Amino acid sequence: MTMKKAAIMLYPLFSIQEISCTTELFKFYDKEIVTFAAGREPVKSEDGFTVLPDRDLEDFDRAEFDCLVLPGIWEPLPVLLDRRNIRFLERLQGHRELVLAAMSSAPLLLGKAGLLEGKRFTSGVFEEFLDAFPVMPREGIVRAPLVEDGDLITAHGGAFREFAVAVARRVGIDCWEDIFSPMAGREYTEEDFIFHIPPEDMAEVRADWARCLADAEKFPEKSS
Q1: pTM of the complete model beyond 0.90
Q2: Does residue 217 belong to any structural domain of this protein?
Q3: What's the CATH code of the domain at 120?
Q4: Per-residue pLDDT tens for 126-150?
């Protein structure tokens, strides 16, 4: 059975860090990732990386995907007020078996689109922000690092490791729970830092290296 793809929703000043463990698990387990953004315009992350999305939000085909991941946002208001983002999320009303996974401030978008009604969830949003922009139903807020309710997974920004494992497991990836646990405070031996690659994989690396060398010889060195 072919694994469905993972969709990542992008918007200005999104947090790469909060979803990097999640996307690393997708990559490691050969789950294809497709990025979406309003207008398919280049999007700058909170730390200054410019990303060109693969598709426009209007081109989202529900049948292709089993999850939609929403990273947190450094400045959520402009994203929240962009109707293109909310219209896209509103289209997901009633879609079952699509995991919605939102980090930190991203549940604001889900709330604005009506996707948090009757759900338990958490976020990293300031209390004052909740009062000023009441788009998330307060009765559903749980003060916890990570909350799972049906096909909804939400997390505080500091729970990015736990979030990654929860999302991966929900889409059928059999990863161990402490895969991204911090290394500080553990006892180590030199053997823990000696790594080997299987012979068949090494043969593939050598073949790739030979192809790279052959390709490099096609291009003359630039003269000074």
Answers
A1: no
A2: no
A3: 3.40.50.880
A4: 989 888 888 999 999 999 999 999 9
